[in-house]
Amino acid sequence: MAETITSIMSAVTLTADKPVEGNSQLSEEKVFEELFRKYYSRLSVFANKFVNDLQVSEEIVSDTFTYLWAQKDFLKFNSSANAYLYRMVQNRCLNYLKHKKIESEYVNYLARHNMLSEIPEVSRNPYQEKELAEQIQKAIQDLPEKCREVFKLSRFEQLKNKEIAQQLNISPKTVERHMTIALERMRACLKHLFVFLLMVFGGV
Amino acid sequence: MNETVKNLLVKYITGQADETESAEVKEWIRSKPEHEKYYIELYEAWHNSFYANQDLIDVDQAYLSFLKKTTIPFYKKTTFWSKMAVAACLMLACIAGLYRYQKNRAFDSMVTLSVPKGAKRKLTLPDGSLVWVNAGSQITYSKNFGEKNRTIYLKGEAYFDIAPAKTNIPFLVKTDRFTIRDVGTVFNVKAYPDENVFETAVVEGKVSVEGKINQRSGSESKVFLDANQVLSINTHRVNAQHSSPELNKHLHAEPVKVLQIDPQEVNEYNGWKEDVLVFDGDTFEDIMRVLERRYDVKILIADESLKNLKYVGTFKNIRSISAVLKVIEETTPITCHTEGSQITIDKDQ
Questions:
Q1: I need a labelling partner for A31 at 20 to 30 A (CA). Which of A102, A173, B30, B149 fits?
Q2: If you count residue pairs, one on A and one on B, with CB atoms under 8 Å apart, how many are there?
């Protein structure tokens, strides 16, 4: 048997160009995927400030995107209109709190100071976000070693105090103390930013 | 401010305070404006610190579950492919040699996309080529795809729309047994490890399939396929030393087949992209495997004699497995029982 079987069937030559609407469908999906990837985690962090539960935050953001896809609203978006996304997520968070009858001191505070109406600049401006990230990384780096370890496990691994105590073989009370020191330091460190955030927040 | 209060505040912020403690904190915050301000600053610090590292949020995973949720709306609207399927021709590709890529290649520089059962996923490769990956399939490619190579490793089924090459780098799809080589075409490859058939259908252009196609001689060879041709290879022949009754059935089948098909028949090979399932005389055993992947269920054929029954039918945009089975039940001597995600198929009593 011949080692090379060459197909004897004649090829049908294709000359038809791809229809234009096909391309627009492709780009529609692409635009959406980009939007999703760009904003998903930003919006989740943003939502988390309202609901203080990362899992719930992610669900709210996912639902928002599902809604957006169904409505095709994202097609109207441009780089300066993304405040709309934040507004949608914020509204959903507030509805969630209302529905679950959760009273958030943070939301109360923002509402009383008329700060719910503006989206924080840091949530919209990638440069400010980057700067903030760097400042925080430095603040974390400056924490005492054990304190830093505890804080990272709590913040970035979502571990509970008890789990951290077990993992590091220290008492839960010690974990609590480390957490308090860490957060207190972060507060002091970010205080100037906080004032700044408030200004942008309410002041525009 | 005393330490006990601070500790309580932190516990409350991190969601670890019990009811009594929470009530205590709320009371403390309400009692003085300075208290509230301190609390808000601490709360902000906790949340803003998340900006330092957002790895905890898995965007890829989130996007995948989003796709899974919206699979049907995503593709229902695509009139483009049906048009193209008509405009285009279906071509069948052939198979060649056994190509085992080295296991010790640098895995850390590879990107892998696994699509769970019940889902499918479309992506654009760095060179602009489009790939649709079917349920229960996996593709892997290197991070510098498009620079030094354009090689995709495939387990399962995928449909490729290859962008014209800007360089001389060939586009290769490698399955566990064969390599498909092409420049600027559209084709479907089906090579699930748990199935005995390797199949390539060429919609546009031309491909070659390389590997041990003639399994008796065991030497490397090459088959060229044009548009509208389908190559199918019975891969059980490749290592058919052991012999079970299950296997014998496949040994009777032709080992290598090249089919010429009509452009209208293209759906049978790539319909899955648009939620169209086409069965054209496939055996029940093969059909149930397709349905298992498509709907993420387990299907057990209780009666051996049903496995080789052949079925012809087309299903479009059907959301539930039960609806598909109901149609099949009406026209064939079978009865289905569902328990959770386990479905048992038996002969009519």
A1: B149
A2: 204
Residues A140, A198, single domain; the answer is yes
DSSP B96: B
**Closest C-alpha to B240, from B260, B255, B261:** B255
Q: What is the pLDDT of residue B40?
A: 92
Give the whole-angstrom CA distance, residue B243 versus residue A80: 66
Mark whether B135 and B283 lie in a shared domain.
Answer: no
Q: To the nearest whole angstrom, how far is the Cα of A180 from the nearest Cα of chain B?
A: 6
A151: which chain B residues are within 8 Å (Cβ-Cβ)? 49
Q: What Cα–Cα distance (Å) separates residue B128 from each residue in A137, B121, B146, B165, B208?
A: 37, 16, 9, 10, 21
Question: Choosing among A59, A113, A176, which should be mutated to test the B contact, i.e. which has the most B CBs within 10 A?
Answer: A176
Does one domain contain both A125 and A57?
Answer: no
For the segment B84-95, what is each residue's pLDDT rounded down to a tens digit? Answer: 443 443 333 222
* Phi and psi at residue B136, to the nearest 5°: 65, 30
Tell me the average pLDDT across B233-239: 64
Residues A89 and A144 in one domain: no
Partners of A14 on chain B (C-beta within 8 Å) are: 87-89, 204-205, 227
Closest CB from B16, B42, B78 relative to A161: B16
Residue B133 lies in a domain: yes
Give me the domain span that covers residue A174: 120-204
pLDDT digits (tens, 9 = 90+) for B79-134: 454 444 434 433 332 222 233 333 333 344 778 888 888 888 888 888 888 899 99
CATH code where residue B135 lies: 2.60.120.1440
Predicted TM-score (pTM) above 0.90: no
B58 domain-assigned: no
Do A95 and A180 lie in one domain? The reply is no
ipTM over 0.90? The verdict is: no
Residue pointed to by tokens 């978006």 = A77
Contact state of B78 with A9 under an 8 Å Cβ cutoff: no
- pLDDT value of residue A194: 54
